[in-house]
Recover the amino acids of this structure.
């Protein structure tokens, strides 16, 4: 890498737009969505889709709600051509869906494209040619006038071919490829020259697609380009301004959102951002970003896992774990403070009577259930996790509703185990650790058997318990107002009571004949230390006594 001064790379020239309006605007409705998965996405795959795979993908896009779908580059290969013909022959194109075909501004390619369209009710012919200085000088070695003439010639040929397929409603889309790196005044000049040929109307608008073929600057620069173009286009009312961003700088989503603020009407992109180099715009992300702002995205994204499975199965691409909304880990919290906040927020939301009430859960931008995700992976446990996450998993997966005062101690035990293993702990592992530490502690004190005698007049009970303490069997007796207080009295008489009973909680686990009771005991030793124990048994009294024994053993 060069160090200062850097001569190899130069910043872009800012757009002269001192009174720009886009920073003060808000997006208030979804744009027109156009999927380019079957063309732009497909050409970026190591193994392009077969015709059958394209059919399956097309059906998935239709189900998702796309009304404009770029189905391919029919002049590029026989597979592309055959796919479009199958859509026609098998009548797979719904009445409310318009298919789009891409073609360079070259005569033989345009003729071949129109051959593929025969019998299609509605189609967008997407014409393009490169306009940037870099493309003009390096790729084509042509002047501005020569490049504009290519676009005009392509538009004229398309116009002449439209009457040859009268049963098809043809709309024209034009892209000055590499608009992001083209002088805005020249891009406007070329687009208006194409409009002059096609002569769009307010009822039959031209689509002017302004692609960030390569992302070359910050998103605000892209917004300035779009606003400048929209404000200077002579017949803006006869054009649909379309965006087609890429992700070379990692800001394709931001560029698109700012481009919509700048006046664009339409967005081209792919599912999960598949595309050349760093990818196309991810329509899923932008659509759900709108949803989280209370805007109907006009796409059915209620089952993201199914859509992802289709995408991954056909493209052989993997959605990254940290991908917004669809990644495996995006609804997962490892951090203890995050877990605690999420648990509290979800508990409060669950208590609301109206399931459509405002979503207010810390760290979760969206309710995972809205897009077909579940809460199962929200909280996962490693050495960074805390008390709230552990308590959440024990409650959700195993029915154990730990007293709040117990959370820090249990969290520390689980955290230590995760830290020692240097790995994430599964829910069943956490449960097993909890049982071992808090339920199955049977040394130095073990309760072997117990008998109870009730006194009706005094409401007291007497217990006789068989215990083993430090490998020695003994029978102890005590009286109290309940089994636990009587057992504490018996321990005191035997010389084992060096604690105070601080708290007792209990609840049921399960339903019907499989119901068990979980009891939690908190004791405070004479040295001031606090210890907890848990007992689980079908008999609530036995569960409570076992909890006391566990707490006693944990205090040793």
């Amino acid at each position: 890498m060069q160090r200062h001064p850097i001569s190899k790379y130069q910043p872009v020239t800012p757009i002269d737009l001192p009174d720009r309006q886009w920073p003060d605007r808000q997006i208030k409705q979804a744009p027109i969505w156009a999927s380019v998965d079957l063309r732009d996405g497909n050409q970026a795959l190591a193994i392009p889709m077969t015709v059958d795979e394209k059919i399956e993908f097309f059906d998935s896009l239709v189900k998702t709600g796309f009304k404009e779908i770029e189905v391919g580059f029919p002049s590029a290969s026989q597979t592309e051509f055959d796919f479009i013909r199958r859509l026609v022959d098998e009548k797979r194109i719904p009445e409310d869906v318009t298919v789009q075909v891409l073609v360079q501004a070259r005569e033989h390619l345009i003729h071949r494209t129109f051959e593929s369209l025969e019998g299609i009710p509605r189609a967008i012919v997407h014409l393009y040619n490169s306009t940037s200085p870099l493309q003009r000088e390096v790729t084509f070695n042509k002047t501005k006038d020569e490049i504009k003439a290519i676009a005009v010639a392509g538009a004229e040929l398309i116009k002449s071919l439209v009457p040859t397929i009268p049963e098809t409603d043809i709309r024209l889309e034009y892209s000055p490829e590499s608009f992001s790196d083209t002088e805005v005044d020249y891009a406007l000049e070329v687009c208006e020259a194409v409009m002059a040929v096609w002569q769009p109307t307010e009822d039959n608008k031209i689509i002017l697609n302004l692609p960030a073929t390569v992302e070359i600057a910050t998103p605000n620069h892209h917004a300035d380009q779009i606003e400048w173009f929209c404000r200077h286009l002579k017949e803006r009312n006869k054009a649909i301004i379309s965006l087609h961003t890429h992700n070379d700088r990692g800001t394709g989503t931001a560029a698109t959102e700012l481009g919509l603020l700048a006046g664009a009407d339409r967005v081209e992109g792919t599912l999960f951002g598949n595309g050349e180099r760093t990818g196309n715009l991810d329509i899923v992300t932008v659509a759900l970003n709108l949803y989280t702002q209370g805007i109907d995205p006009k796409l059915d994204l209620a089952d993201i896992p199914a859509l992802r499975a289709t995408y991954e199965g056909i493209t052989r691409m993997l959605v990254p774990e940290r991908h917004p909304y669809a990644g495996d880990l995006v609804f997962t919290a490892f951090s203890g403070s995050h877990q605690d906040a999420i648990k509290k927020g979800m508990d409060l939301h669950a208590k609301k009577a109206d399931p459509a009430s405002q979503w207010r859960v810390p760290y979760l931008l969206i309710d995972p259930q809205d897009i077909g995700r579940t809460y199962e992976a929200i909280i996962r446990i490693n050495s960074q996790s805390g008390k709230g996450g552990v308590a959440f998993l024990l409650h959700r997966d195993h029915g154990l509703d730990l007293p709040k005062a117990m959370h820090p101690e249990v969290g520390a035990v689980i955290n230590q185990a995760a830290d020692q293993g240097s790995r994430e702990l599964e829910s069943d592992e956490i449960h097993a650790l909890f049982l071992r530490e808090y339920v199955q502690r049977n040394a130095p004190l073990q309760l072997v058997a117990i008998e109870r005698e009730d006194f009706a007049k005094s409401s007291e009970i007497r217990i006789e318990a068989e215990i083993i303490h430090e490998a020695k069997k003994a029978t102890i007796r005590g009286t109290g107002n309940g089994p636990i207080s009587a057992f504490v009295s018996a321990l005191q008489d035997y010389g084992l009571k060096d604690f105070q009973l601080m708290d007792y909680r209990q609840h049921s686990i399960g339903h019907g004949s499989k119901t068990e009771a979980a009891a939690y005991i908190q004791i405070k030793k004479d040295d001031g230390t606090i210890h907890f124990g848990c007992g689980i048994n079908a008999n609530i009294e036995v569960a409570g006594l076992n909890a006391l024994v566990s707490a006693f053993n944990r205090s040793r």
